C-alpha cells in the first residue's frame, strides 16, 4: 500500500482559498482517510503515544526554560525554586522528568515492534532510518537535559561522557573543547547544553514530520507483513479515522494512567538520589550512572577495556540499527512466520534488559551469586563484567551474523495470501 490519491474536496470559500495556497487542511484530511490495514494490533498505537510524549516534553520544557537559570552558581537553586515557588512548578518539573522516561519506554516498544514485524524492509527503509535518527536525537537531548539540574550526577555524568569524546583520535580534543566551551566543565558548558537541549526537541519534531511523510508515502506495515495490492485495498484496509483514532485514543488513556502513577505517586522512582545534591567537582560519587534508558549503551561502553574501543562500540550499537534493512536477508517480514528467528528475537530482548541491569552495577561490584570470579588475560575480573561482555557480543552478533544467516537458512511458515485470511474462515490457500 503506497500513497493514495487525495479525496478531500474544499467546501467553503475559505477552505478553497487556503487549499490553493497552503493545503494544510487537505494534508490533515488525507491523513485521516489514509487506507490503513484493518488487522493492526495495539503494538501499532505507540506512534500516537510518542507524538503525545513529544508535545508534552516541548510544552513543559518551554515553561521550565522560563524559570531556569543556566549558571553553575544558580542552576541547582533555580530548579529548587521551580519546585517550591512557581505555581504548579513541581507538577511541571516532575511531568518533564518522568516524561523522558515515558518517552523512552514508548520508543523502545515502538522499535521492538518494528523489529519483530519487519517494518524496516522495502519499501519502508526510509521510515526506519528516520526513526533511528529520531532515537539518536532523543538520546542526545536526554543527556543534555540530565546535566541541567546541576546535581552531583548531572555534573559527573557530563564529565564522563564529554571525556569520551576526547578519546576520538585527531578531532576528539578540538570537539571536546568546543563542546565544553573551555578546558573544563563550567558556565560555558552549561549554557551550551541548555541551548542545545532547548533546540533539539524542535529538530526531533521536524524529523517526525519526515517520518510521517515517509509513512504516508510507503504505507503502513501490518502484523502479517504482506503488501496490500490495489485490488485488495478496499477489502483489507479501513480509513485511519475513526477506526484507529479511537483505538489509539484508548491506548493513550492507558498510557497516561501509567504516566500519572509515576508523576503523582512515584515522581523520583526513575531518577537518582545523588542528583538532589548540588554539583561538587571535588567530590566524586561512589557510582556515576546515567538514566535507566541509557544503561544498555553504558554497559556496552564499559564492556570494552580500551577507552576509544568502548566509544566505538557504544556508537556502533546505535549505528548498526541504521543499516538493519540491509542486514536482514529473509524475504518474510513478520516473525510470526519465522519460528527460528522469533526465538533469537526473544533472546535479544532479554539481552537488552540484561545489559541495562549490568549497566546499573558498580564497576567493582562483587561477583554474581553462584558464579566464580574469572582470572583471565587482564587479571581478576568480576563476573558482572564478563556477563556484560557476553551480552554485548550477542547484541552485535544478532544483527551482523544471526540475522543474515538465519534469513538465508530458515524455512518460514506458510504466509497468508491476504491480511483477511488469518481471521476469516474458508480463505484462500496459504502460499509459502
Automatic annotation (TrEMBL):
<feature type="transmembrane region" description="Helical">
    <location>
        <begin position="126"/>
        <end position="148"/>
    </location>
</feature>
<feature type="domain" description="Cytochrome b/b6 N-terminal region profile">
    <location>
        <begin position="14"/>
        <end position="224"/>
    </location>
</feature>
<feature type="transmembrane region" description="Helical">
    <location>
        <begin position="250"/>
        <end position="270"/>
    </location>
</feature>
<dbReference type="InterPro" id="IPR027387">
    <property type="entry name" value="Cytb/b6-like_sf"/>
</dbReference>
<feature type="transmembrane region" description="Helical">
    <location>
        <begin position="383"/>
        <end position="406"/>
    </location>
</feature>
<comment type="similarity">
    <text>Belongs to the cytochrome b family.</text>
</comment>
<keyword id="KW-0813">Transport</keyword>
<feature type="transmembrane region" description="Helical">
    <location>
        <begin position="160"/>
        <end position="178"/>
    </location>
</feature>
<dbReference type="InterPro" id="IPR005798">
    <property type="entry name" value="Cyt_b/b6_C"/>
</dbReference>
<comment type="subunit">
    <text>The main subunits of complex b-c1 are: cytochrome b, cytochrome c1 and the Rieske protein.</text>
</comment>
<dbReference type="InterPro" id="IPR048259">
    <property type="entry name" value="Cytochrome_b_N_euk/bac"/>
</dbReference>
<keyword id="KW-0812">Transmembrane</keyword>
<feature type="transmembrane region" description="Helical">
    <location>
        <begin position="198"/>
        <end position="215"/>
    </location>
</feature>
<dbReference type="InterPro" id="IPR016174">
    <property type="entry name" value="Di-haem_cyt_TM"/>
</dbReference>
<keyword id="KW-0249">Electron transport</keyword>
<dbReference type="InterPro" id="IPR048260">
    <property type="entry name" value="Cytochrome_b_C_euk/bac"/>
</dbReference>
<keyword id="KW-0408">Iron</keyword>
<dbReference type="Pfam" id="PF00032">
    <property type="entry name" value="Cytochrom_B_C"/>
</dbReference>
<dbReference type="Pfam" id="PF00033">
    <property type="entry name" value="Cytochrome_B"/>
</dbReference>
<feature type="transmembrane region" description="Helical">
    <location>
        <begin position="42"/>
        <end position="70"/>
    </location>
</feature>
<dbReference type="InterPro" id="IPR030689">
    <property type="entry name" value="Cytochrome_b"/>
</dbReference>
<feature type="transmembrane region" description="Helical">
    <location>
        <begin position="340"/>
        <end position="363"/>
    </location>
</feature>
<keyword id="KW-0679">Respiratory chain</keyword>
<protein>
    <recommendedName>
        <fullName>Cytochrome b</fullName>
    </recommendedName>
</protein>
<dbReference type="InterPro" id="IPR005797">
    <property type="entry name" value="Cyt_b/b6_N"/>
</dbReference>
<feature type="domain" description="Cytochrome b/b6 C-terminal region profile">
    <location>
        <begin position="230"/>
        <end position="417"/>
    </location>
</feature>
<keyword id="KW-0472">Membrane</keyword>
<feature type="transmembrane region" description="Helical">
    <location>
        <begin position="91"/>
        <end position="111"/>
    </location>
</feature>
<keyword id="KW-1133">Transmembrane helix</keyword>
<comment type="function">
    <text>Component of the ubiquinol-cytochrome c reductase complex (complex III or cytochrome b-c1 complex), which is a respiratory chain that generates an electrochemical potential coupled to ATP synthesis.</text>
</comment>
<keyword id="KW-0479">Metal-binding</keyword>
<feature type="transmembrane region" description="Helical">
    <location>
        <begin position="308"/>
        <end position="328"/>
    </location>
</feature>
<dbReference type="InterPro" id="IPR036150">
    <property type="entry name" value="Cyt_b/b6_C_sf"/>
</dbReference>
<keyword id="KW-0349">Heme</keyword>
